[in-house]
Amino acid sequence: MESTPFLTGQFLLAMPGIGDPRFERAVIAVCAHDEEGALGIGIGETIEGLGLHEVLRQFEIDPGDAPDSPVHFGGPVEPRRGFVLHSTDWSGQDTVDVCGRWALSGTVDVLRAIAEGKGPGQWLVALGYAGWGEEQLDQELSRHGWFSTVGDPRLMYEVAAADRWEEGFVGAGVDPRMLANCTGRA
Prior knowledge:
Elements: E1 10-14, E2 27-34, E3 37-42, E4 46-51, H1 52-58, E5 70-73, E6 77-86, E7 96-98, E8 102-105, H2 108-115, E9 123-132, H3 136-141, E10 146-150, H4 153-158, H5 164-171
Family: Belongs to the UPF0301 (AlgH) family.
Pfam family, one: DUF179
Protein name: UPF0301 protein FHT02_000146
């Protein structure tokens, strides 16, 4: 894969002491990052008391045999807007392939497909997203706050949401217990 200065297809892990309580221990799947900005979906926290079946009912979709999986807090921007991060074995009308690692869909067709048992093999549902304007993420990356790591889909689908932050660091060879909540001033 060609190396670029952009983080599409990677995970952002919040460093201790990031300074924004909305992002404490956040794990963000970066779905788009270029000169114009970035968009990511939070995968490290679920919304208490909200499952897939309730989301499907809001769209008048029969849940069928779909599991009542927890819904993730995707980020503070547009918290009522839904997204599905999923494996690349399914594609719908607005699906965006994210570097061949996972896909992002934001229309109801993916929810219908999941409920009908015809959707992607692996998926997670999130409300909201994290967004950065032009060069905003690049500036944040130059300060203490975010750590980027390879976007291995196993972290998204095989690790419980509450464990993704720690596992993300471990997978990158970093012991999260050794992280400081500030940077040096040399």
